[in-house]
Description:
Blueprint (H helix, E strand, L loop, with lengths): L13 E8 L5 H8 L5 E5 H6 L6 H10 L7 H17 L9 E5 L5 H7 L3 E10 L3 H15 L2 H4 L1 H15 L2 H4 L5 E5 L4 H20 L25 H12 L2
Bound molecules: adenosine-5'-diphosphate.
Amino acid sequence: MTQCCGCQSQSARYKAILLFGAPGSGKGTQGKILAAIPGFLHTSTGDLFRALDPSSDLGKVFREYSTRGELVPDSFTIDLWKEHMRKVVESGRFELATDLVLLDGVPRNVNQARLLADAIDVVKIICLDTDKLDVMVERLKKRAQKEGRADDADESVIRNRMDVYRTNTTPILDFYPKDKIAKVEATLSMIGVFTEIAKIVRPIKDALDGYPVAQEPSPRPAAKKAPAKKPVKKPAKKVAKRAKGRGR
Ligand code: ADP
């Protein structure tokens, strides 16, 4: 990646789609589904933290904050994400010109959005939104059973994360231009949410890959028409004519 005075040039910034939403809104699920499509990279700061050696200094910091449902300090988080991206680019797994990175769980406050501004070019913010916060809480409790996440098992920790989301994370929506924000109802089925996201993301990715950007789902190409049959001559008329002539 080209660097000048420590900031990345406009063209070298990672083209990014922010997956935005409360804990349990499905950012991770949708990020993983989308990342199955070549040209999309899913990055989750929660996953990056969980992959750390728990006995490392940063691993311990993560544990300390996450078990209380609090945010890890900003500089640790953003440095971790930037370092992860540097490695991904270095290994050739991300094409700067055409690939899109999906940011799941970051930025989580306005300061993080500022710290990321030199590294990402935010092309869209997909906000997995709902009024039904209880559905989110139920999802997190189910995830606790499935994945054994300590921060999902305790309802008071979940409620605290919801509060942190409301207080610290939602103001981010004022940091970015309004026309970049697209809302999707988070309590639809998994495939329902994905369908809505695909509609938003497809024109962006198609344009990057040089496909014509379809406004509507493109119709299937019409089946090749069979050559028109030669009209069958109707001798009846001639016969009728001849008969007419004879009659004269
Ligand atoms: P959820 O979205 O359900 O809260 P995550 O896996 O995204 O789950 O995050 C788990 C925990 O990891 C958070 O509660 C927080 O402690 C830490 N974390 C993840 N992302 C960030 C971030 N961007 N800034 C600070 N802390 C973070």
